[in-house]
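From the shared-data thread, chain only:
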Amino acid sequence: MNATDAPAPHRIAVVIPCYKVRRHVLAVIEAIGPEVERIYAVDDCCPDGSGDLIESQCADPRVRVLRHESNQGVGGAVMTGYAEAIVEGFTIAVKIDGDGQMDPRLLPLFARPILDGRADYTKGNRFYDLSQIQRMPALRLIGNAGLSFLSKLSTGYWNLFDPTNGYTAIATRVAAHLPLERVSRRYFFETDLLFRLNIARAAVLDVPMDAVYADEESNLRIGKIFGEFLGKHIRNFCKRVFYSYFLRDMSAASLELAFGAALIAFGLGFGSWKWIESIHSGVATPAGTVMLAALPVIVGLQFLLAFVSFDVASVPTRAIAPFLSVPARWRRPNE
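Structure, as tokens:
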């Protein structure tokens, strides 16, 4: 191997979405260790002027302030940071919130599985240490439990928990192959990104972490976003199943899902028809007719359970980043 064949050194960038984070963002930047080469502070049209504050009071040469002319949401800010990290040739892009909830000293724990080739994307999980869960606000605890189950269904990563955790790291080679322009721009973006990572068959790992709940003000309201999240989870689940089990590949699980859904639909439809007919006629439905409706539902449920078992077992576990190159559209003209 000659000098030109030597692997490029690993370079880490941090993306900090900045929206109403004036109280904490400077401390967050100051706590980021020397292993990070670049810090992208994305001012998402912040009404408090977070970008101006950073430029005027932060002397860290690693910091670059990127600005949005209109508010794009936390997902939009992160995608802007990802795009810059890809173009500038960084190996990993780590997303840290600017509100002080995430400890920047944990960053090497998120980067290491990617550098070792064990993962393409890592995310925080605040539920590993049961003693720390008591510190989490009850509403967040309940909301995360429900959202985690929906996330498992829609993303296909049954081994993950705490889907709304925003402490994440991604291999830029993998990010470059994702449709970043189509990722949800608001609070659903973490889960939407997981869905797209699954379509790409990327390996994702949870990283145990503690969260800090001090005087930060969350802009996320569970009651306002639950309906929106539910609809998007259903949409992504249907798209994932179609892409993975019918468009890109077909397997025994595809047949199990198709037959299971058809049998349940027939059983419920036929049973409802006979039940309504019995009410109008006043004549009890014969036992054989009841079984003709019940049996397809029972068998269909067994097919669906077999499909879920197959889906759980097919969670991507092999990192794809080592086998990818950055597409030409992300390269600078002189490269």
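Residues 1-6 have pLDDT under 50 and may be disordered.
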